[in-house]
Write a structure and sequence with these properties.
The protein is α+β, with helices and mostly antiparallel strands and 185 residues long. The chain has 2 domains: 61 residues, ZPR1, zinc finger domain (N-terminal domain of TfIIb, Single Sheet), CATH 2.20.25.420; 118 residues, ZPR1, A/B domain (Jelly Rolls, Sandwich). The chain has 3 helices and 11 strands. Strands 7-6-9-4-11 form a 5-stranded antiparallel beta sheet, with no helix packed on it. A hairpin with a 5-residue loop joins strand 2 and strand 3. Helix 2 runs antiparallel to helix 3. The radius of gyration is 19 Å and the shape is globular. It starts with a helix and ends in a 7-residue tail after the last strand. Bound molecules: zinc ion. The site of zinc ion (ZN) has 8 residues, from loops.
């Protein structure tokens, strides 16, 4: 893309209205990347310059079926395994954490280390405001567990369920199965 078209696009994007503060200061970006063994993925993001509203998501360029992925993290090398997580995905780390979909949920392309560091960040943040000693201790133990998983000293199951099919764990070791989608009334 040349400089001129880049500037033109930026101008167009700034015309967008923010869904939160309604200022015309929302910048949209869209990018396509290739994820081996999954296909092309569009990365979308919107960031408001006024209120700092931020939303990012991913979408596979091909229509995918609802899917569930299971993976056992068992070594340091697994940290590099790529993960595509859409905003509609539920990420489960049994006995550790669950990332649920919702309005504040983001979509991104990362790796297992990236998923663990997001969980770590959330536990650290909640530990800061936690006043109960027992819960503080619990958070401390979870952080220790994450560190052990990162170093390959402790095994951990990772499950990703996505009714949109836009999520994946990219590894031969990952078990993919169809996800039964509950119909909401
Ligand atoms: Zn805004």
């Amino acid at each position: 893309m040349d400089e001129k078209s880049k500037v033109k696009q930026a101008d167009d994007y700034e015309q967008q209205q923010c869904p939160l503060c309604h200022e015309k200061s929302l910048i949209l970006t869209e990018r396509e990347i290739e994820v081996p063994y999954f296909g092309n993925v569009f990365l979308f993001s919107m960031t408001c310059n006024s209120c700092k509203y931020h939303k990012a998501d991913v979408e596979a360029s091909e229509q995918k079926e609802p899917a569930k992925y299971e993976f056992e993290i068992s070594g340091e090398d697994d940290m590099k395994v790529r993960v595509v997580k859409s905003s509609e995905a539920t990420v489960k780390l049994p006995h550790l954490a669950t990332i649920t979909p919702g309005p504040a949920s983001q979509g991104y392309v990362t790796n297992i280390e990236g998923i663990l560091s997001r969980v770590k960040y959330q536990i650290e943040a909640s530990k800061e405001i936690e006043e109960d000693e027992e819960d503080k201790k619990k958070a401390k133990n979870l952080l220790k567990k994450i560190l052990n998983i990162t170093w390959g000293k402790e095994k951990q199951k990772l499950i990703i369920e996505d009714p949109s099919g836009n999520s994946a764990i990219i590894s031969d070791k990952a078990i993919k199965m169809p996800l039964k989608v509950k119909v909401e009334k």
